[in-house]
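Hi F.,

I've been meaning to write this up properly since the lab meeting, where we talked about keeping a consistent format for the predictions we share between groups. The idea is simple: the sequence comes first, exactly as it goes in, then the structure tokens exactly as they come out, then a line or two of notes. No screenshots and no reformatting. I'm using this chain as the first example so we have something concrete to point to.
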Amino acid sequence: MPVSPKSLDVQESRARDSLFLLAELTLEDSGERHKVKVRNLSSGGMMVESELEVTQGQRIVVELRNIGHVRGQIAWVRSEKFGVAFDRQINPKLARKPVGTTQETPRFLRVLDAYSPSYPRQR
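Output, unedited:
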């Protein structure tokens, strides 16, 4: 169900995640792609900081880490910041999860328990 810009007043009282996240934003009318900084993220929208010139009501698609592509529209514009109302609800906590999927201990943190010619043990 689309989120209307009018519902932003209600969304402002909902919990937001303040963060610094880079995302790729595509303007639907021109197909132009831009890297933007996401400063606040909630289930219904986000606040973006960018020098990109956008207008209220303009349709966009944003690619968010661990969430994927989300369609929406520009809800408001103030100097170098603008708000986006998503067409569907998302789980903003997914954007904070690490990108890697492995639970394995990184190699540099492993304890060396076997002989290696490149790392001789001192006795």
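Notes:
DSSP finds one helix and six strands in the chain.
The chain has a mean pLDDT of 81.

If this format works for you, I'll send the rest the same way.

G.
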